[in-house]
Design brief:
Blueprint: E1 3-7, E2 10-14, E3 21-22, H1 25-38, H2 43-46
Bound molecules: zinc ion.
Length: 54
Amino acid sequence: MVKEVRKDDKILYICEECGLAYRERVWAEKCEKFCSKHHACSFEITRHAVQTDI
Ligand SMILES: [Zn+2]
């Protein structure tokens, strides 16, 4: 399940498998699918992640 987190009035979508945050839900969902299937992250997906201290 992708987790929604509000931060500074923005919504971030968190991949619960690896904990990376995305501005678009679609990337978090792609990341989570990839992470749970391969137990590793895809650079093509994680390069869309945002820096966060959540
Ligand atoms: Zn992930």
